[in-house]
Amino acid sequence: MGDAMEVPNRWPFGLCVLAVVCCTFGSMVGCKDRGDMEGSFNIRRPWVVHDVSLRGVVDPLSSRLGWVYDFTGGQRCQLFAPDGHPVEALPYSFSADSLVLRIGGVRYTVYTAWGNELVFGRIEGDVDQGTYHCVPK
Fold it and tell me: Which UniProt keywords are listed (predicted)?
């Protein structure tokens, strides 16, 4: 009877260990609070992206449109323009300081600047002003 009484007393310790393991490995594979996985930035003329705060990890199989690189955290997520249409990050366009985006069928080259700004470089069209949201799937 004494052994049976000890089992419930071990549960809090076991649950604590399980929680630590889940949190540790969960964060390594992108298991985060949803509030940490969404972000946005604002485009203001002339061609500068301000207030970059993009975080998120997504399943590459969940979208056919490509990904947007998160310059602040090294992760990827799907970007949507102010009018709601997806923004395509062209394949193999990522480097340490630039990426290529296709917004509404128009191709742009984007460069990182100081701090958390992105600067549009080669521009082949107009950029919609507003907030671009990066959303995980």
Answer: Membrane, Transmembrane, Transmembrane helix
Q: Is the peptide bond before 46 cis (omega within 30 degrees of 0)?
A: yes
Distance in Å from the first CA to the final CA of the chain: 51
* Tens of pLDDT, residues 70-100: 444 444 455 666 666 666 544 434 444 455 5
- Give residue-wise pLDDT tens across range 32-57: 333 333 344 444 433 333 333 333 33
Query: What is the token pair recorded at 91?
Result: 């394949």
**Burial (CB count <10 Å: 0-12, 13-18, 19+), residue 77:** buried
The residues facing 53 across adjacent strands are 40
State pTM to two decimals.
0.30
